[in-house]
Design goal:
170 residues, mainly alpha, 2 helices, 0% strand, rod-shaped
Length: 170
């Protein structure tokens, strides 16, 4: 813009036209800014509406997910509650079988010892010879005995012809 000197005379008409032009430029700039602000306001309104819509969608999706999660938890609990019951029943059965097994072993040992003590107390003694004595005594014959085969007294000389041994008498 050219520099205006005070010494230059400005007419009223020229001043009014310059002020009007300046005012028009300012008005157009303000209208342009108002248009931009209006568009920004509309965009913000659209963003708010979209955010509300997304918020509602997320809320409904979360409700669905919570419902599905709850259903899955119920199914999971139902499956594993039967497994817990099975483990507890198995543990109790195992403990009882161990207790009854030890009890039956103790009962068997006790009854065997009581039987032995009763035999000893009644005076019945089954004396058994020591093993070394049992081997020394001959066992009684079980069948009628046969006559023994005579054994040759001496071996024949090596030079003599071979003779058959005598036959036993039958």
């Amino acid at each position: 813009m050219p520099r205006i000197r005070m010494s230059d005379p400005v007419s009223r008409y020229e001043l009014n036209s310059k002020l009007a032009a300046q005012d028009a430029r300012l008005d157009s700039a303000v209208h342009q800014m108002l248009g931009i602000v209006t568009r920004i306001d509309q965009t913000c309104g659209q963003i708010r509406a979209e955010n509300k819509q997304l918020h509602e969608e997320i809320r409904s999706d979360m409700k669905e997910l919570r419902a599905e999660n709850k259903a899955m938890e119920n199914r999971f609990d139902a499956r594993f509650s039967s497994m817990r019951t099975t483990i507890i029943v198995t543990a109790v059965a195992t403990a009882l079988s161990i207790i009854f097994g030890v009890g039956s072993l103790i009962g068997t040992l006790t009854s065997t010892m009581m039987g032995i003590f009763q035999v000893v107390a009644s005076g019945q003694q089954f004396m058994q010879k020591p093993f070394s004595e049992q081997q020394l005594t001959p066992s009684p014959p079980t069948a009628p005995s046969r006559p023994a085969i005579p054994q040759p007294q001496a071996a024949p000389p090596a030079d003599s012809p071979h003779t058959a041994p005598p036959e036993p008498n039958r």
